Amino acid sequence: MKSDSSSLIPLWIKLAYSAFLAVMVPVYLKNYGPTNFLYFCDVAAILTIIGVWRESSLLLSAALIGAFVPQMLWVVDFCFEVTGFHLTGMTSYMFRPPYFLRVLSFYHFWLFFLLIYLVWRIGYDKRGLRLWLPIAWVLLTICYVWMPPPSPSKDPVTQAPLRDPNKTVNINYVYNIGSDEEPQKWMDPDLYFAVYMGVLVFGIYLPTHFLFAWLTPRAVERRLEAGVSVAMDKVTPPRTPAAGTESCR
User: Fold this and answer.
1) pLDDT, tens digit, for every residue of 163-204?
2) Which residues are CB-neighbours of 52 under 8 A, at least 6 positions away?
3) Which of 47, 87, 120, 228 is geometrically suited to a Cys-Cys bond with 80, CB 3.0 to 4.6 A?
């Protein structure tokens, strides 16, 4: 952890985010189980807490690459739902109980804004793409090979529940990007999975990488600025007021 004089991230952000995760993680584990932390958004949240305390531009840049577009879509869909319109339905669960869980899930709304701010403060590390890609590929493979596929949540005739609504299925949309009720039927599942991985890399992660490499300062520039500032503080001697010029006490 950096000293106060050289820290690029305010301490109150570190403490507030730590307090939030201290509540969210055990509540999510109890209600959703550990497999819920295979979602990209939850992995990005965990990377963020480590990156915040270490002030690691690498970890924060990787989290931003993984979270930016999906969370931005979440925010847009949520705004549609709030105003009474329906876009994709991916956030419709936010308006159903239990509401304490929904309050915690609202981190999907603000996390990517926080990550943008943090990366702007600490600088963008181009190696973040090389870190996030293998993380994403491992997560997708685990979800496709070992995690449950989509399945109906209710009987179409009686409307009786067929599975626990909190059970995680179709994690990271590896079976169907449009529904958790059934696998997609447009193409062979293996082909869909391969196409989906390609779209994530070339349609989402690479553009996100280029965008923030262009928009935000580089990590080395931020470190140099902080280093120069701290060095100047150390070498500049305090000014001694001339006789008779002391300020009033």
Assistant:
1) 887 788 999 999 999 888 899 999 999 999 999 999 999 999
2) 9, 13, 14, 17, 18, 60, 118
3) 87
Q: Between the CA atoms of 22, 57, 13 and 204, what dihedral angle is there, to the nearest 10 degrees? A: -70
- Closest residue by Cα to residue 52 from 21, 25, 27: 21
Q: What is the pLDDT of residues 89-135, one digit of tens each?
A: 889 889 999 999 999 999 999 999 999 999 999 999 999 999 999 99
Question: How far lies 149's CA from each of 155, 160, 178, in Å?
Answer: 17, 20, 13
CA distance 127 to 7: 21
Beta bridge partners of 161: 154
Domain spans in the chain, listed from the N-terminal domain onward: 11-151+163-223
What pTM did the predictor assign? 0.85
